[in-house]
Amino acid sequence: MDRETGTTLMELLVSLIIMGLVLSLSLPSLQRLVANQRLAAAANDTLALMLQARSSSLVQGDIVICIKNTDCDDNTPGPGLIAFHDSNKNLKRDTGEDIVAETGDTKQIQWQWRSFRGKPWFRYKATGKGYYQNGSFYVCLKNVGKRVVVNWVGRPRVESSIPKGSCPATQ
Question: For residue 129, is pLDDT > 70?
Answer without folding.
Answer: yes
